[in-house]
Specification:
The complex is a heterodimer of chains A (208) and B (599). Chain A contains 8 helices and 6 strands, in the order E-H-E-E-E-H-E-H-H-E-H-H-H-H. Chain A has 208 residues and is α/β, with parallel strands linked by helices. Chain A starts with a strand and ends with a helix. Chain B has 21 helices and 20 strands. Classes of the chains: A alpha/beta (208), B alpha/beta (599). Bound molecules: thiamine diphosphate and iron/sulfur cluster (2 copies).
Chain lengths: 208, 599
């Protein structure tokens, strides 16, 4: 395993990046690693760009990931993925929720939302390892749009397992699920479990 | 084995307060400090409160510390500007029990109007400054701050930054000490506690001597840590910068200052003499650097690292390569390609935000609007574009008054939130009445302190500890300030707001419009969310509803046959059913709620 694994999470306020990064840092801890997480509470409660950093390793110093130093970019929204493409190190792994949330600058400001080819093109200049996951659609099928973030975490867990440089630590699906279950209301445990497993399946079917 | 838990820096400070036996804590919310009090309030039997502003919070903590209880006041960096007067006298008097002031600074201004470095306040006030570099230290230094405060009879400034407050790392938990049951008699010691000139003049030399004594104590202070590795490079650092130093310069020797003021001169001299090149790694001001240079010790700091913004490992690494401290090979590859200009996603008022109609109307009226700080500052963002000045909390009303007194030919409007009005708006409104300017003040009362994440305030009927409290009603308060023209409306009633503002703008006297409706994210408001719909056969793509800047209104793929413009479409997963778009749609193409009061 690499000495330190750097994750950058990005999305739109209200999409659940905070819960996702909280899960991620605690999964690192549960795997017996040192782990740190950093986020920013910006000016708006919902709707603005958000990022959050998670690092795992034997010893982690900085809580934040430098530009071009992320091993994994976990993007909850496509425009935000593209905005953060430079965070990824060459050859890094990008996991992108196939969802567009159109900002006001497009609706009333006359700007255009980037096309899928442009997003993919920008990532391909950095890495071949780009995975799109239909998190929103899968969450909808499960009957609750709000679990899209957990779908993404499921997909991430499967991709980490498949990559020897990133897995290393003893990380079973059950480790993840335990951490997730400690953080969601009791009545939503089953829903989140199914969302997590759906995410794992999605990358298996799509990419392997 | 001690229990380890993942805590944010703010949670760790709260834990440290608990383990230090703090009994009274007061704060005004402000990112990135807010969660300190929110978490401290969860411990059993403690007293924690939201004060109306930071000055009040410091005075409250001072009073508790005079009364012999360990006390703390927390705020964001700019809060200490508001509380500066109190901070200064507290340094002069000292206290009976430990007193700690937390300043959470915000390098890079993630959610602030400036990035002032508050270590300067410690030096200015002759008060020691402690700086943790992760959550464990946030807890440990909180406890250490109380010991230091009591040892030297001084307030202590605990300085955090965003990357300490909102970063999570593992912390070992300890226990709360046994506390004495009774409260000591309140001191009768005017020579120490009454700062009239005759007493104060005797206290000044005392605090100068105190800071010299603390500097001597700092020489062996366990939180000032020497880590000797290679001799080629020595780094003096504090706070989160220590983490970047370890990450980027694994070979370097480090003097880590847990106490960044006063500086331990002897320790610094010995460290400087033991390394070949000495650099200071600190965010924002060259605070330690200037201190070291004043000692006549050669060092480099801001000639290498940025003065503005925050550090991260790549910023530090790149600066180090430029200065020849590291070989270029440490930077993995060329800068990744820039994706070019992208549509920005600025922070926006939420769908259903009760602030939106006021800004829609103000934009239409084309008046100069003097803003203040809160969610409603987002009235600045296009297409609402209806805020023209905004400096700090409480400024808007008085800036409008000043512009009016200067003869500015238009009628000036001030907009201010409920929490901000209680914070510093009231004295400014009194000034408008007393000195008589025809300023139109709009109080945007969303029944909560919104921007910082829903804290209670004097208008909400509840305290931080969840106790019921008297609700301060705004209209009677405003009238008691002497305002004759005052009215309270629903914040979502577009027509009434427009009518009233048009009327008030013509008056030659001060007026206040209070618009009231709970923040759309409050639980009571969420219960009433009902998404509305655009009737595609009625919508002709006139674009009027795009001009209220609601993120739930999208451009549909469907074009209107005649105008060839996209029709509107409402995203049902975002829409709350506030009916603002429905009220302004000229073609009745947007449905109203089943329980609507507007149809
Ligand atoms: C001196 C100072 N203290 C605290 C803050 C942080 N702060 C910014 S806005 C705000 C709350 C505003 O609440 P309110 O006026 O009710 O407006 P809302 O956000 O609810 O619209 C706070 C606490 C600040 N910017 N300056
Ligand atoms: S949090 Fe509340 S007050 Fe703030 S923008 Fe959202 S709806 Fe408006
Ligand atoms: S009713 Fe209209 S303005 Fe209100 S949230 Fe829904 S779309 Fe936005």
């Amino acid at each position: 395993m690499k000495e330190v694994i750097n994750f950058l999470l990005c999305g739109v306020g209200g999409q659940g990046t905070v819960l996702a990064s909280d899960v991620l840092v605690n999964v690192g801890l549960a795997a017996g690693l040192d782990a740190k997480q950093a986020e920013v509470h910006g000016m708006s409660q919902r709707g603005g760009s958000v990022t959050s950093h998670v690092r795992w390793g034997k010893q982690v110093y900085s809580p934040i990931v430098g530009l071009g130093e992320a091993d994994i970019l976990l993007a909850f929204e496509k425009l935000e993925a593209l905005r953060n493409v430079r965070a990824l190190r060459p050859g890094g792994l990008a996991l992108i929720n196939d969802q567009a949330i159109v900002p006001l600058t497009v609706t009333s400001g006359g700007q255009t939302y980037p096309a899928d080819e442009n997003i993919l093109g920008a990532f391909h200049a950095v890495t071949e390892r780009v995975h799109f996951v239909p998190g929103e659609r899968l969450a909808e099928e499960l009957g609750n749009l709000r679990v899209a973030n957990v779908v993404l975490l499921g997909a991430l867990s499967a991709l980490l397992e498949a990559d020897p440089a990133l897995s290393g630590a003893a990380l079973s699906a059950e480790t993840w699920l335990k951490v997730i279950e400690e953080r969601v209301p009791a009545k939503h445990v089953e829903l989140n479990r199914r969302a997590f497993l759906a995410g794992r399946e999605a990358v298996k079917v799509a990419d392997m | 084995m001690a229990i380890k838990k993942m805590l944010s820096g703010n949670e760790a400070v709260a834990r440290g307060m608990w383990e230090a036996g703090v009994q009274v804590a007061s704060a005004y919310p402000g990112t990135p400090s807010t969660e300190i009090l929110e978490n401290f309030a969860l411990f059993p039997g403690v007293y924690a409160e939201w004060a109306t502003n930071e000055k009040v919070a410091v005075d409250v903590a001072v009073g508790a510390a005079y009364a012999g209880k360990r006390a703390l006041a927390a705020m964001k960096h700019v809060g200490l500007n508001v509380a500066a007067d109190s901070f200064m006298y507290a340094s002069m008097t000292g206290t009976e029990a430990g007193l700690v002031i937390v300043s959470a600074d915000d390098p890079a201004m993630h959610s602030s109007q400036n990035e002032q470095d508050n270590r300067t306040f410690a030096k200015f006030a002759r008060v020691p400054c402690l700086e943790p570099s992760d959550s464990q230290e946030a807890k440990d230094l909180t406890i250490a701050a109380f010991e230091l405060s009591e040892r030297f009879d001084t307030p202590v400034l605990l300085r955090l930054t965003t990357r300490i407050c909102h970063s999570t790392s593992a912390v070992e938990l300890g226990e709360r000490p046994e506390l004495p049951a009774e409260t000591k008699p309140f001191p009768r010691n005017p020579a120490k506690y009454v700062m009239v000139p005759g007493n104060a003049i005797k206290r000044h030399p005392v605090i100068e001597e105190r800071i010299r004594a603390i500097a001597a104590y700092a020489e062996d202070y366990p939180h000032n840590r020497l880590e000797m590795r290679g001799r080629a490079l020595g780094i003096i650092t504090s706070g989160v910068s220590y983490q970047y130093a370890r990450e980027v310069f694994p070979e370097a020797s480090i003097l880590k200052l847990g106490m960044s003021w006063p500086l331990p001169e002897g320790l610094i001299r010995r460290f400087a003499a033991s390394v070949e090149r000495l650099i200071i790694l600190e965010e924002l001001d060259p605070f330690i650097e200037e201190g070291v240079k004043l000692m006549g010790i050669a060092c480099e700091g801001k000639s290498i690292f940025p003065l503005t913004g925050e550090f991260d490992p790549s910023v530090v690494r790149q600066s180090a390569v430029r200065a020849g401290l590291l070989p270029a090979s440490v930077i993995e590859s060329a800068a990744p390609p820039d994706p070019g200009p992208l549509p920005a996603r600025p922070p926006v008022l939420c769908p259903g935000c009760p602030h939106r109609p006021t800004f829609y109307v103000l934009n239409k009226l084309k008046v100069p609007v003097n803003g203040d700080i809160g969610c409603y500052t987002l009235g600045l963002i296009p297409p609402l574009s209806a805020i023209h000045t905004c400096g700090c909390m409480g400024a808007g009303i008085a800036v409008a008054h000043g512009a009016a007194q200067a003869g500015s030919p238009e009628r000036h409007v001030a907009v201010i939130g409920d929490s901000t009005f209680f914070h510093t708006g009231v004295p400014a409104l009194l000034n408008v009445v007393y000195n008589q300017a025809p300023v139109v003040t709009v109080i945007l009362d969303n029944r909560i302190t919104g921007m910082t994440g829903h804290q209670q305030n004097p208008g909400t009927g509840q305290t931080l500890l969840g106790k019921e409290a008297p609700v301060v009603e705004l209209e009677p308060l405003v009238r008691a300030c002497g305002v004759k023209h005052a009215r309270t409306l629903s914040a979502l009633d577009v027509d009434e707001i427009e009518k009233t503002l048009k009327e008030y703008i013509k008056l030659d006297e001060p007026s206040v419009l209070i618009v009231q409706e709970p923040c759309a994210l409050l639980p009571e408001a969420r219960k009433k969310w009902v998404p509305l719909e655009v009737l595609a056969d009625k919508c002709n793509g006139c674009t009027l509803c795009f001009r209220i800047g609601c993120p739930a209104i999208l451009k549909s793929e469907e074009l209107d046959e005649k105008t060839q413009r996209p029709k509107a479409l409402i995203d049902a997963s975002l829409c709350t059913g506030c009916e603002v778009c429905a009220q302004i749609c000229p073609r009745d193409a947007i449905t109203f709620r089943p329980d609507s009061i507007f149809v």
